[in-house]
Design brief:
There is one protein chain. The chain is an all-alpha fold. The chain contains 14 helices and no strands. The longest helix is centred in the middle third of the chain and has 31 residues. The protein is flat and about 85 Å long. The protein starts with a helix and ends with a helix.
């Protein structure tokens, strides 16, 4: 187990380096300069690029980025907050905190509701409640998050006036309700569908029939035996979902006027603020890689029969 984890950490580091290299290459493949404006002159652009080291060869620029990350220096913003360290923008200005707050709450809602709904549908297979949940979750998977966010705004904020239109800093419970539900709705429905499918497969296995023959109660059969063996597909999905959902949803944050990391990341791309693009990309990639490592370890916890070292070989 320890050797497997160490091997995965090494692979994760190489993966993160590759992601950073691809992001850097794509970022610099766009012609032009981030300092170009209608009033800028070639001399002004050259001075600005020299100031931030953008006049150096691309391999040297990439090496400087990576070297800075190892020392905790992610560079400074070129345009959006000129001269401000990228690490401060991401972690100390509340942007990551806001996205983290929405993401964790949405993840809890998605998992805590999605798994029970999937179990309920599987247990009542072929009945009206199963049909209703299948239609409901299919709609949830098909409807984009911006449509759900807009619908909630119209219904609960404009027409019924139960919730505030602008969420902004998410300081109250009422301001968190719609953003969290908008982010959680799709993964909740997808988790419910995954759980139902896995549960139906598990319920038909021999060990479940044996448990029933021994007279075990339905609840114990479902939640101790069937559900535990049905969680691996859900865990596989929840790992990358956690990283993506924590780093923020640009659409939802824009709809509810939340100045989170997702919204800021897209704004940095539009403004060609290279250090912010690189910094947020590396943070997102690191989260996804770490969560995938946790998922592999969780496999062993959920099903001790899985041999991670042999599976890797």
């Amino acid at each position: 187990m320890t050797g497997y984890v160490l091997k995965r950490i090494g692979i994760s580091f190489l993966t993160l380096l590759l992601v950073a290299a691809i992001a850097f290459a794509l970022m610099n493949a766009i012609p032009g300069s981030p300092f170009y404006t209608e009033k800028s002159t070639p001399e002004m652009i050259a001075r600005a690029e020299a100031k931030y080291g953008l006049d150096k060869p691309l391999p040297v620029q990439f090496y400087n980025y990576i070297k800075g990350y190892f020392s905790g220096d992610m560079g400074v913003s070129l345009k959006m907050q000129e001269g401000t360290p990228v690490a401060d923008i991401i972690f100390n200005q509340g942007k990551f905190e806001l996205s983290l707050k929405i993401g964790i709450a949405a993840l809890m809602v998605a998992v805590c509701l999605g798994i029970p709904l999937g179990v309920l549908a599987a247990y009542n297979r072929g009945k009206w409640i199963d049909s209703f949940l299948r239609v409901f979750t299919t709609i949830g998977v098909a409807v984009p998050s911006f449509v759900m966010a807009t619908l909630m705004l119209i219904v609960f904020a404009v027409n019924l006036q139960w919730l505030p239109v602008r969420s902004e800093q998410l300081e109250t419970f009422s301001s968190c309700v719609m953003p969290v539900l908008a982010v959680a709705f799709y993964p909740m429905c997808y988790i419910a569908k995954l759980t139902r499918t896995s549960m139906l497969d598990a319920i038909g296995q021999d060990y479940i029939r044996t448990a029933r023959a021994k007279g075990l109660k339905t609840g114990k059969i479902l939640f101790k035996h069937a559900l535990r063996n049905s969680l691996i597909p859900v865990i596989t999905y929840v790992g990358p979902l956690t990283a993506g959902i924590i780093t923020g949803s640009f659409v939802v944050e824009t709809t509810f006027s939340i100045p989170g990391l997702g919204k800021y990341f897209v704004s940095s791309i539009m403004n060609r603020d290279y250090p912010i693009i690189m910094g947020t990309t590396v943070v997102l990639a690191a989260l996804i890689i770490v969560m995938n490592l946790f998922v592999d370890i969780a496999y062993k916890i959920v099903d001790p029969r899985i041999n991670l070292a042999k599976a890797e070989d």
